[in-house]
Amino acid sequence: MKKALVHCALFDGATYAADRYVLFDEKILDTGPMSAFSNEDVEVIDASGQLAMPSFTAGHTHVYSLFARGLALPFHPSSFRQILEQLWWRIDRNLDNDMIYASGIAAAGEFLQNGVTTIIDHHASGADISGSLFALKSAVCRDAGMRGIFCFETSDRFDVAQCIAENRKALAWTHEGTSAGMFGLHAGMTLSETTLQSVKRALGNDPIHVHVAEGEEDEKESLRQYGERIIPRLDRHGLLQPGSLISHAIHCDRAELALLKVRGCRIVLNVSSNMNNGVGLPDLQKLQKAGVPLLIGNDGLSASITNEYQNVYYLAHHQQGITSFSLDDLWKMIDEGSFFAGSRLGIKLGRIRAGYAADFLTVPYVPPTPIDTSNVKGHLFFGLFSSFKPKNVFVAGRRLVADYALEPALRDQSQKASLQAARLWDALRKEGKPREFDDTI
Prior knowledge:
The chain folds into 2 domains: 108 residues, Roll (Urease, subunit C, domain 1), CATH 2.30.40; 290 residues, Metal-dependent hydrolases (TIM Barrel), CATH 3.20.20. It is globular and about 70 Å long. Helix 2 packs parallel to helix 3 and helix 4 runs parallel beside helix 5. It is an alpha/beta fold.
């Protein structure tokens, strides 16, 4: 049955209008002023006092990182690699498919309640490689109802053949509109020449999703071992296919950025995570001048993507001055995430217009000052994004968050996820102190 959202203020992703209706099923069918609305044979949802807008895409995340929340381990890193060794590599090598599914369910619930309906995930798990992406897709897309793009981060830390096989399975998925695959790579410092050669043989012309130059030591290690920086090394192996996602790229130089533009790649910013890890911050002016399309991710740090938008904006003002980066510049990045995800999924995302997927949200908002198309982004950024809690969230026309609450089945499954997190934590405790951990640091 068709549905109609009525009496909403509508920001369709580009323009604003008051007292509108949105007619939809799995896709947006029509929008218009309430004076033109006919309620025959439709389910009516009253959105008086609410702003309707497109839902969000997280351009780079790690779903399994949810299970690090509250975890206490011996932790005294003095470099970015030691952060990986002492925390993240310990976690991911102990993940099995039951844990992966549970983390996906719990993360999906949090994402949805923050207005995120599509994620681009970068996964790693050592206990189970085979079937891990299917477990994630089953949780996030089939059971939680979100959309997702998934890959396995191929690394010499794991069985490379299994990593490649898992990525190939995801790339072959045909679940149109709900899930898709990319080819995942970890970071250059964990990818040998032999591994990159094997990846290229399996890759063909598919895009990759890879960590690049998150820490400065990643570039230094590439120069030391291979006599070249990371991006030229990936290009030498023919891996920079159009549509590839380069996550972080903090320490890439101008020549690397120029090569990324030529190859049709995109960069995903993860500013909050970069600050948390103390690895440096992207030079936004340099990235913008390079002309490489920019997306915004959260690197698994938080389900609140609007906080990421704020940090990108404030970083730009801190680096460049307050007149050099506008809310229009920010929205270009937000749109890039939606449009890129839609292109991978074979649908249209990021607008509330006829023909686009019915992925949108409503959030209560009574503007205290005049609002129109010229200033709606300012109302969103300064009035809502600091504490963004949608009342209703729709994916493909299905209301997954209703009056702030998740669907009961998803809520029940999310609450059980902590049992699998406890299994993971128990495995970490039994593992003991890893040999790479140095107590004297």
